[in-house]
Automatic annotation (TrEMBL), chain A:
This is YciI family protein. InterPro entries: Dimeric_a/b-barrel, YCII. The lineage of its organism: Bacteria, Bacillati, Actinomycetota, Actinomycetes, Kitasatosporales. Residues 15-107 form the YCII-related domain. PANTHER family: BLL7171 PROTEIN (PTHR35174:SF3), BLL7171 PROTEIN-RELATED (PTHR35174). It comes from the Bacteria. Belongs to the YciI family. It comes from Streptomyces nigrescens.
TrEMBL record, chain B:
Gene3D superfamilies: 1.10.1740.10, Winged helix-like DNA-binding domain superfamily/Winged helix DNA-binding domain. This is RNA polymerase subunit sigma-24. Residues 98-148 form the RNA polymerase sigma factor 70 region 4 type domain. SUPFAM superfamilies: Sigma2 domain of RNA polymerase sigma factors (SSF88946), Sigma3 and sigma4 domains of RNA polymerase sigma factors (SSF88659). Belongs to the sigma-70 factor family. ECF subfamily.
Length: 135, 381
């Protein structure tokens, strides 16, 4: 009964095994990939383990406070060096092992040639606010 | 509208339906529908016999469901042969329900969800809110759990230990959403204790009461953790403490020690001390020895090291700690505390910061970060 974040990256993760950019896939391969993700989410809702999932656009900016009375600074021309999160899924599972098992399944989503992408997904536990019973 | 009454009636109404031949999953659905109906109707006029009312409505819902479901014609035949519902029996045999909802074939999270719904009478929405998951997800978790146990015979006694574990999990979840799970766990454990004469049930109830009694003092208004030694003991609930201690003493007198009684004994020694300095750490160490013997849990040994540090000084605590695997959760935090007590502030500050990075929850991480910051500020002065 712990929540984990599965993070999918556009950039910043180690290279996938089947590392072909998505725009080089056949349209039906893209559809198969999307369907796999949707089925995965549906199945987790069925097992009572799904919490949330969202995709993120690749365009993002670093933003910083620039002092009293000034507009915030944005990072401008260096965006291509950033790690980029492509999307996330939040799951609520009984163990860390289960979280890793599910991340492994998600990483097997089909890519170019209908073969699994073997992409790297990041698995991060949530910090809860569980009261400490032992003192 | 008495929601507490409604919830307390849930398990016995469900048990009556199952006794009359409804299968568990369908009966559970029917009871939930009856509860919803009660919430709608009762504010205008509460029935004189609330339990009888619920049984009648739930049974009607069950029959409607069974009739509407053409694939279940066979059961419909069975239902028609049943005598018409009479008055609700006065005997409460909901104990079976506790066993069923804590059945070993369920995962811990499923057992917790099913217990809260079938025994606790909470709605799926309330349970989903309490565990911060979508209602659809919780609904699926509960219906899978119901399917898992639907083949389990209802008339066999189960293992009290599994029930206690589930109630303990509920208690530890604490508070989020509009349902206080700690209070709910206490209520369910109280009901269980009224039905089953077992010193460990009493032990768990005492443990929960003793912990709950100190809850108000455990966090500052800004949500940060207040360590035991710094808690305002005037904010402890003395009524709960007295009740917990009395229940524990009666349980211990029966001389069938278990881990919950031992944990409750430790909590009672903390709760009994008028000031942190007057805590009987020597006796606490002895209870941790008992607990270690009963559970052989590394977490217990870690807590024991803290107690040894208080009873025999930080060096003794560090020696006890050195015997344990440093990968244990909170090992680093304990080491930091003992080094601070021993006067080695540099090491303590470093270890507090390291422990904060490994902390399993937010309040604890922030607390440990503050400890590191406090020591660092003192050293740089």
């Amino acid at each position: 009964m712990a929540k984990y974040l599965l993070l999918k990256h556009y950039r910043g993760a180690p290279a996938a095994v089947n590392d072909v950019p998505m725009d080089q896939w056949k349209p039906e391969e893209i559809s198969a990939h999307m369907q796999y993700m949707q089925d995965f989410a549906d199945r987790l809702e069925g097992t009572g383990e799904f919490v949330d999932g969202q995709a993120l656009a690749p365009e993002g900016a670093w933003v910083r406070y620039d002092g009293e009375g000034r507009p915030p600074v944005t990072d401008g021309p260096f965006a291509e060096t950033k790690d980029l999160i492509a999307g996330w899924m939040v799951i609520d599972v009984d163990s860390y092992e289960r979280a890793v098992e599910l991340a492994g399944e998600l990483s097997a989503a089909p890519g170019a040639g209908g073969k699994p992408i073997h992409e790297w997904l990041e698995v991060r536990p949530f910090l809860g606010a569980a009261p400490c019973i032992t003192e | 509208m008495d929601e507490a009454l409604l919830r307390s009636l849930t398990p016995s109404v469900l048990t009556i339906l199952v006794r009359r031949g409804a299968d568990f999953a369908a009966a559970e659905d029917a009871v939930q529908e009856a509860l919803v109906e009660a919430v709608r109707v009762w504010p205008a006029e509460q029935p004189r016999d609330p339990k009888g009312w619920l049984v009648t409505v739930a049974w009607r819902k069950f029959l409607d469901g069974a009739r509407a479901d053409t694939a279940r014609r066979r059961r419909e035949g069975l239902v028609d042969e049943e005598p018409a519902p009479g008055p609700a029996p006065a005997v409460d045999d909901t104990l079976q329900l506790y066993f069923l909802c804590a059945h070993p074939s369920l995962t811990p999270s499923s057992a917790v969800a099913l217990t809260l719904r079938a025994v606790g009478g909470l709605t799926t929405r309330q349970i989903a809110q309490a565990y911060l998951v979508p209602e659809a997800t919780m609904a699926q978790r509960i219906s899978r759990a119901k399917r898992t146990v639907s083949g389990v015979r209802f008339d066999r006694p189960g293992d009290v230990a599994t029930v206690l574990r589930v109630l303990y999990l509920v208690f530890n979840e604490g508070y989020s959403g509009d349902v206080d799970l700690a209070a709910e766990a206490i209520r369910l454990t109280r009901q269980l204790a009224a039905q089953v004469d077992h010193p460990e049930v009493a032990g768990l109830l005492a443990l929960m009461l003793l912990h709950h009694a100190r809850r108000a003092a455990r966090t500052a208004p800004d949500g940060s953790l207040v360590p035991l030694a710094e808690q305002d003991r005037g904010r402890w609930d003395t009524g709960s403490i007295a009740e917990g201690v009395a229940i524990l003493q009666a349980a211990l007198a029966r001389d069938r020690l278990g881990e919950f009684q031992a944990q409750a004994a430790i909590a009672a020694l903390h709760a009994d001390a008028p000031t942190a300095e007057e805590t009987d750490w020597v006796q606490i160490v002895e209870w941790y020895d008992e607990l270690a013997r009963l559970t052989d849990s590394p977490v217990v040994r870690l807590n024991r090291a803290v107690a040894v540090g208080e009873a025999d000084g930080p060096r003794a605590g560090l020696a006890a700690l050195a015997a344990l695997d440093d990968a244990l959760p909170r090992h680093t935090a304990v080491a930091a505390y003992l080094h601070e007590r021993d006067g080695d502030l540099t090491t303590a500050a470093r270890l507090y910061a390291e422990a904060a990075r490994k902390a399993p929850d937010l309040a604890e991480r922030d607390h440990l970060t503050r400890q590191a910051a406090r020591l660092n500020a003192r050293r740089s002065r």
